[in-house]
Design brief:
It contains nine helices and nine strands. The chain is of the alpha/beta class.
């Protein structure tokens, strides 16, 4: 059994608690124009971007970092949308749980419910992106169905869930909708971050145009303060 990935990042500090091994799976069903990992969007191998790896080899890569997981770390499956390959991943997930390795999924959550239910059986943590809340923009800009996203949130254990928000003009315009969402679901932690253009070289190689916008620091601070009133653990991070 194999899965298709683009990279294995060792000693990661920003993809869940503790020191982690982050596996970037290839393939996503959204089209976020600001994506920081454009090489993960297509499920096809694109030149230097993407390769198939056996579950055995992937497990070896993860387990070699196990001494670092004593800080409360573990493995994070990111992407792309990692839940799209959850059926192929499941044998590996079973093995990792038997080895008491903490498992986290970073997901946009725009996936069939059956995929999320499989992930829930093995996951200790979820990082869930809040990319778009407005129904029309969600469909038009990123190609997602907001009803699917909201229904999936209801299935999560919020005590094990971190919400993560990229700060865009779309997000700021929908501040009230986001505040209402947070009041309703109260995740254990909230992270926000500014867009960056560090993936520009990847976009050039893929012959794609990168979307980038600079949000005023004052707007970011105001947004942050409103979020922090609801989720006290809110922090600004760098991705």
């Amino acid at each position: 059994m194999t899965v298709r990935i683009t990279n294995i990042q060792h000693f990661s500090l920003h993809d869940g608690p503790g020191i982690r091994t982050t596996v970037f799976l290839k393939g996503c069903n959204l089209k976020c124009p600001w994506c920081a990992n454009p090489e993960c969007i297509s499920s096809k191998i694109q030149g230097e971007f993407g390769y198939d790896i056996s579950l055995e080899k992937l497990e070896q890569e993860i387990v070699k970092d196990k001494p670092f997981y004593e800080t409360g770390g573990g493995v994070t499956f990111s992407g792309g949308e990692p839940l799209l390959q959850i059926n192929d991943l499941e044998p590996l997930l079973k093995s990792l749980k038997n080895k008491n390795i903490n498992i986290c999924f970073e997901t946009a959550l725009f996936v069939p419910e059956k995929y999320l239910k499989i992930a829930k059986k093995y996951s200790d943590e979820f990082i869930v992106d809040i990319k778009m809340i407005n129904h029309e923009n969600c469909k038009k800009v990123i190609g997602g169905k907001i009803d699917q996203y909201l229904n999936n949130i209801k299935l999560l254990d919020l005590k094990k869930t971190t919400f993560r928000i990229p700060i865009t003009k779309f997000i700021l315009k929908d501040t009230k909708l986001i505040l209402d969402l947070l009041k309703t679901y109260q995740p254990k932690h909230l992270e926000i971050f500014e867009l960056h253009n560090l993936a520009r070289k990847k976009y050039d190689i893929l012959n794609k145009e990168q979307y980038y916008e600079k949000i005023d620091d004052r707007e970011i601070k105001e947004f942050y303060e409103k979020l922090k009133e609801i989720i006290p653990t809110t922090e600004i991070i760098e991705i």
